[in-house]
Amino acid sequence: MFIDSHCHIDFPDFSEGVAPLLENMRTAQVSHALCVSVNLENFPRVLAVAEQHANVYASVGVHPDHDEGREPGVAELIELAQHPKVVAIGETGLDYYRMAREEVEWQRTRFRTHIRAAIAASRPLIIHTRSAADDTLAIMQEEEAEQAGGVMHCFTESQSVAEAAMQMGFYISFSGIVTFKSAKDLKEVARHVPPDRLLIETDSPYLAPVPHRGKRNEPAYVRNVAEEIAHLRGIDVAEVAEASTQNFFRLFRCAVQ
């Protein structure tokens, strides 16, 4: 079985509802999915998906790119994380892709808020970093993010960044990007991440893997990510499935359903 450790199946892109996605997951042998929050306004929608389906979990947090709406506080994140289907804080982190570092001190403040909440709530972090690896790692170290642990989601950084994150106890999660021909450096990272630190994801509806590239992504396609990683490592895909599934339940501390 495979697990999609990061998706957004509450998004309007899935207007047909979750039921067809779950059926496609069953066909592809994808047993569980983690539906990840990107803002507080739509968190009830994320939580509802998890409450209605035993094999779907939820997180709570505000994406670093989200510059409108309600700003999260430590106390509120801790409170929302107490729900039994909420298994993580995030996604959170830093994203300098569209804005200069000097313009986004609020991102760094928000990131610290999430780390502090995760430590207090005993929930792992889901970390997004884009064009901001040095600051992301620095804040993780300053705020002692290793106390919470977590995952570097949709990883696209270097081997050295992966190693720094793993030294703090974090997992490395690969998305459909690893299947792209242009992702040569990322493929190398995927070859070297230890099996006990490996996760797979779709980040759907985005970043559909080959052979679905250009289409709307969905959790069933996480199998294609696992197949590419198995190919890169010269192992059977069952080994990637077993390792990533065990890692998911270990990290998010949720009972096998």
Low-confidence stretches: none
State the strand order across the main sheet. Answer: 1-2-3-4-5-6-7-8
As a percent range, the share of strand residues is: 15-25%
The ordered string of helix (H) and strand (E) elements is: EHEHEHEHEHEHEHEHH
Please tell me the CATH architecture by its name. Alpha-Beta Barrel
What is the count of DSSP helices, taking H or I runs of 4+ residues?
Answer: 9
Q: Count structural domains.
A: 1
What is the CATH topology classification name? TIM Barrel
Largest sheet, in brief, is: 8 strands, parallel
CATH superfamily: Metal-dependent hydrolases
Brief account:
With 257 residues, the protein is of the alpha/beta class. It contains nine helices and eight strands.
Describe the structure using short key phrases.
alpha/beta, 257 residues, eight-stranded parallel sheet, TIM Barrel, single chain, 39% helix, 8 strands, 9 helices
